[in-house]
Amino acid sequence: MTPQRDGTTAGRDGGASRVLVLNSGSSSVKYQLIDMTDGSRPAAGLVERIGERTSSLHHTPADGEPRTVERPFTDHGEALTAVADELAADGTGLDSPQLAAIGHRVVHGGRRFTDPTVVDEEVLAEIERLVPLAPLHNPANLTGIRTARALNPGLPQVAVFDTAFHTTVPEYAARYAVDVETADRHQVRRYGFHGTSHAYVSRRTARLLGREPEDVNVIVLHLGNGASASAVAGGRCVETSMGLTPLEGLVMGTRSGDLDPAVILHLHRVAGMDIDAIDELLNKRSGLVGLCGDNDMREIRRRIDAGEAPGAVDRGGEDAARARLAFDAYTHRLRKYIGAYCAVLGRVDAVAFTAGVGENSAEVRAAAIGGLEQLGLEIDPALNAARSREPRVVSPEYARTAVAVVPTDEELEIAAQTYRLVAGEPGTATGGT
Ligand code: ADP
């Protein structure tokens, strides 16, 4: 096999060269079939609202019309069986000789899983043991793996963990400063998430700069509905903003990110809220939605622009002011993290923006980088405003540190890691190289 520049790998003598990537969420399954010879996607799709009467499957083959199956899928088993049927109808079923493996996104790998891992009974038991750390995600991931195994027991299944890229964070950064025995007994430490995206984007950024990942220090800002930052030194993650759970760090769509832990004690003791109510508040009704009622950055910008437009006196007021507050809180937190990670890394070669907000919002990028000239960070307004799906640099040529927009591709990263493992290549991830 020959590793290709886009991170895919040439198949063995035209043999099994495809990986099915499965991302099983609590009520959904997303999938992509990726051909590692050229990175093409023969099929992709999504099953939504599993367990509800209105569930549906949307299947998009590369060489045909998209299809929708609308019927109740009562559990992940039924949903995955239907996905397998759709793939089989295209001649790309789970028994296809072209299929090398299935790569599963698994949210929590704890401290044990530092690399992609071929699934066996022992691995399943270990992922099960980690359920208390990711009670919503790991059970869905496990069901996905078990169903896929049942559908084709001979096919290698590989677990690719969201936490794995962050297992290189040094102990002094991964530990909370709480009693060591209590923390260890309950597996309390900072794990970090979105690891496949941080891995992919940091490597892809190095390539954009024409350098090797080992030679560059990158700050990656993954800004989707969930949002996280990471500091990557020479290809190894040394700091990341999410912690024991994905609640810590940046302001997100519906999550608060950082707060004084005593806020929780206060809400419990003084406001009389129980733990479940506080959990729901901080995860579902905080962040952008908590500050202004919207979690979509497009809508927040629309409200700001409408309210701040000349003559828009009546439409503005409270509506625009709250949207502005949410935007400013979001970008202020980003600037704090960028500054902190400059200090962590010492030398920064690039700051890379990725995911829905990072890839699309020129305003967020400009506000996050604005005023950081002393740190060598600047944005070129024209480059920043230009729309593109390609990785690109948006800082002026003279800037000491590049600011880049690098679309993430977690599916390709999972497929590349999976394929490298089952094809016997060295176990380093290659999606972003
Ligand atoms: P996730 O995978 O975490 O669900 P995405 O990476 O798809 O999320 O990001 C979704 C978010 O991206 C949306 O909530 C929205 O705020 C933001 N977004 C998408 N398109 C744009 C755009 N053109 N401008 C600003 N924000 C956008």
CATH architecture of the largest domain: 2-Layer Sandwich
Structure ligands: adenosine-5'-diphosphate
* Structural domain tally: 2
Distance, first to last CA: 16 Å
Count of separate DSSP helical elements? 15
User: What proportion strand?
Assistant: 15-25%
| Average pLDDT reading | 92
Q: How would you explain this protein's 3D organization?
A:
It is a single chain. The protein is α/β, with parallel strands linked by helices and 433 residues long. The chain folds into two domains: 160 residues, Nucleotidyltransferase, domain 5; 200 residues, Nucleotidyltransferase, domain 5 (2-Layer Sandwich), CATH 3.30.420. It is 36% helix and 17% strand. It contains 15 helices and 14 strands. The strands form two sheets. An eight-stranded mixed β-sheet has the order 5-4-3-2-1-6-8-7, with helices on both faces. The N terminus is likely disordered. The structure holds adenosine-5'-diphosphate.
Topology record:
Layout: E1 18-24, E2 29-35, E3 43-48, E4 56-61, E5 67-70, H1 76-89, E6 99-106, E7 117-118, H2 121-129, H3 137-151, E8 157-161, H4 171-174, H5 180-185, H6 195-208, E9 217-223, E10 227-233, E11 236-240, H7 262-269, H8 275-284, H9 287-292, H10 297-308, H11 318-345, E12 350-354, H12 355-360, H13 362-369, H14 381-385, E13 392-393, E14 402-405, H15 410-422
Parallel strand pairs: 1-6, 6-8, 9-12, 12-14
Antiparallel strand pairs: 1-2, 2-3, 3-4, 4-5, 7-8, 9-10, 10-11, 13-14
Helix pairs in contact: 1-3, 10-11, 11-13
